[in-house]
């Protein structure tokens, strides 16, 4: 029987030793020398989560301010800004909560600030209170008329707009701004007492809108109203099935 | 030896050694790519009511303050897009810049059907493409479903920025690593809300635990018809949209 090593040429055996030594060295480096956090991503991730959690907080959160500023909070709670966090306008206040005397949050008194939300922008949802900053009391600070902690519209909403504010504000910027609600709707007295059981009427005929918008309309208010020929325009539909009367969309 | 046997031997040796190296280096542990909501513990989600967004940009500003995002108007962890839908299917999308005055052009442009704002941020996908492509395992998903970037191991190769179908990542110009929304991980792990949710004046943004029986987030999901962005990609986003227009991508 031939011994196993004798089958291998001497040169190859020596090469094998070198090769095995390299493999052993490699395994040693990989398994022992390289520290585990460099090989195991799970350790790296756990490390990163700790780093992420240790980052500093800048915004203190809505429930902190009330501890000292209860009075303002009570006022704000009842107004239209009740859902706003204090830091929406006053900026990050974590530093202020830690050292109230040294660090003061900003009071955005400049006129450019409120229009960030309240400037007219056609992409904003309909009915969101908006003004044109160019013509709305120019150069006057917002806070001289409106208390930002309890903002009120210039007039208290009453009659229809008390409940239908969104429609009222939409109509206020439309071509129909001069029309009273009762021009088109008949409102039974009972509607104010039980709004859902008794509802106001809607115009049911084409001729109703035609009083202003028909070719031969003679209504005084309808001097510049766009005219259509009722016999040809939109045959079988009532006008408001295509046009939204609170903000009518028409070609000029 | 015949050729087939040599070939098979070599093939198996190759496959085995490959598995060995992979197993030794342990680049991505099993189950790291896609996750499902755990039975116990937090599983964070985010809701956006498109109808409520007024495009004031307070969220973008708060995010930059809270997370030290560079101020230049092309680095964002969250941003708000303004969609303008015109007749004949033409749509313009532009990220708003609250600092610049937006001209109310829609007043005069009669070709505009509708326009609205859509807040966007990292979708924190349960099946995140960015995690799949990272060559060094620097981006990963936590147990509560937030995708994070490990700045210590990120090599800044930008592969994840390319892979994200939502464009939610950018290369941080100072650290030279990929950066993205973390749901304000440092805040939510202390029980606070993400900064953008905190400052949103119209509650267009909602955040909470999807596993909780009662949270603003589970109520948001229950009460609204929910959409996600690009559902066909199977990324399973955890940012849910209510009132989303079909044009929004």
Q: Can you describe this structure?
A:
The complex is a heterodimer of chains A (252) and B (249). Chain A is an all-alpha fold and 252 residues long. Chain A has a domain at 140-252. Chain A has helices spanning 4-7, 10-33, 36-39, 41-53, 70-78, 86-90, 94-98, 115-118, 165-172, 181-184, 190-193, 206-213. The model of chain A has no long low-confidence stretch (mean pLDDT 87). Chain B contains 7 helices and 11 strands. Chain B has helices spanning 3-25, 58-67, 129-133, 159-163, 185-188, 195-199, 216-223, and strands at residues 44-49, 78-86, 91-95, 112-121, 139-141, 147-149, 170-171, 178-179, 205-209, 226-227, 239-242. At the A-B interface, helix 4 of A face helix 2, strand 2, strand 4, helix 5 and helix 6 of B.
Detail the topology: elements first, then pairings:
The complex is a heterodimer of chains A (252) and B (249).
Chain A: H1 4-7, H2 10-33, H3 36-39, H4 41-53, H5 70-78, H6 86-90, H7 94-98, H8 115-118, H9 165-172, H10 181-184, H11 190-193, H12 206-213
Chain B: H1 3-25, E1 44-49, H2 58-67, E2 78-86, E3 91-95, E4 112-121, H3 129-133, E5 139-141, E6 147-149, H4 159-163, E7 170-171, E8 178-179, H5 185-188, H6 195-199, E9 205-209, H7 216-223, E10 226-227, E11 239-242
Parallel strand pairs in B: 1-11
Antiparallel strand pairs in B: 1-9, 2-3, 2-4, 5-6, 7-8, 10-11
Task: Describe what is shown at a glance.
The complex is a heterodimer of chains A (252) and B (249). Chain A has helices at 4-7, 10-33, 36-39, 41-53, 70-78, 86-90, 94-98, 115-118, 165-172, 181-184, 190-193, 206-213.
């Amino acid at each position: 029987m031939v011994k196993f090593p004798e089958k291998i040429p001497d040169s190859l055996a020596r090469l094998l030793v070198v090769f095995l030594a390299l493999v052993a060295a490699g395994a040693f480096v990989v398994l022992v020398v390289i520290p585990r956090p460099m090989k195991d991503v799970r350790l790296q991730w756990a490390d990163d989560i700790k780093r992420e959690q240790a980052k500093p907080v800048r915004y203190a959160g809505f429930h902190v301010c009330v501890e000292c500023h209860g009075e303002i909070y009570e006022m704000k709670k009842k107004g239209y800004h009740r859902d706003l966090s204090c830091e929406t306008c006053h900026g990050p206040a974590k530093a202020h909560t830690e050292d109230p005397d040294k660090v003061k949050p900003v009071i955005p008194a400049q006129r450019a600030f409120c229009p960030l939300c309240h400037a007219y922008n056609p992409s904003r949802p309909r009915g969101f209170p908006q003004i044109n900053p160019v013509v709305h009391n120019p150069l006057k600070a917002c806070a001289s008329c409106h208390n930002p902690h309890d903002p009120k519209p210039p007039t208290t909403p009453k009659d229809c707009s008390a409940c239908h504010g969104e429609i009222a504000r939409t109509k206020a910027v439309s071509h129909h701004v001069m029309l009273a609600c009762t021009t088109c709707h008949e409102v039974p007295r009972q509607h104010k007492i039980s709004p859902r059981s008794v509802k106001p009427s809607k115009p049911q005929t084409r001729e109703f809108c035609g009083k202003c918008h028909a070719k031969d309309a003679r209504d005084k208010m309808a001097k510049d109203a766009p005219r259509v020929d009722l016999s040809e325009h939109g045959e079988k539909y009532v006008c408001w099935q295509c046009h939204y009367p609170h903000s009518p969309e028409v070609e000029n | 030896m015949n050729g087939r046997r040599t070939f098979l031997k070599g093939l198996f040796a190759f496959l085995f050694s490959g598995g060995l190296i992979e197993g030794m280096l342990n680049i991505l542990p099993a189950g790291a790519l896609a996750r499902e909501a755990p039975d116990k513990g937090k599983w964070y989600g985010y809701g956006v009511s498109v109808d409520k967004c007024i495009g004031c940009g307070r969220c973008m500003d708060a995010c930059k303050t809270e997370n030290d995002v560079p101020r230049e108007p092309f680095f964002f962890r969250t941003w708000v897009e303004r969609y303008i839908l015109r007749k004949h299917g033409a749509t313009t999308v532009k990220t708003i810049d609250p600092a610049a005055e937006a001209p109310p052009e829609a007043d005069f442009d009669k070709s505009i059907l509708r326009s609205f704002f859509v807040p966007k941020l990292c979708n924190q996908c349960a099946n995140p493409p960015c995690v799949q492509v990272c060559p060094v395992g620097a981006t990963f998903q936590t147990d509560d479903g937030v995708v994070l970037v490990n700045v210590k191991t990120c090599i800044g190769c930008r592969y994840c920025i390319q892979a994200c179908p939502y464009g939610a990542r950018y290369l941080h110009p100072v650290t030279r690593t990929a950066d993205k929304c973390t749901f304000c991980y440092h805040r939510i792990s202390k029980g606070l809300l993400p900064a953008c949710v905190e400052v949103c004046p119209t509650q267009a943004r909602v955040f909470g635990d999807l596993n909780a029986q009662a949270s603003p987030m589970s109520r948001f999901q229950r009460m609204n018809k929910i959409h996600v962005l690009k559902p066909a990609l199977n990324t399973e986003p955890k940012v849910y949209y209510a009132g989303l227009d079909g044009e929004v991508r």
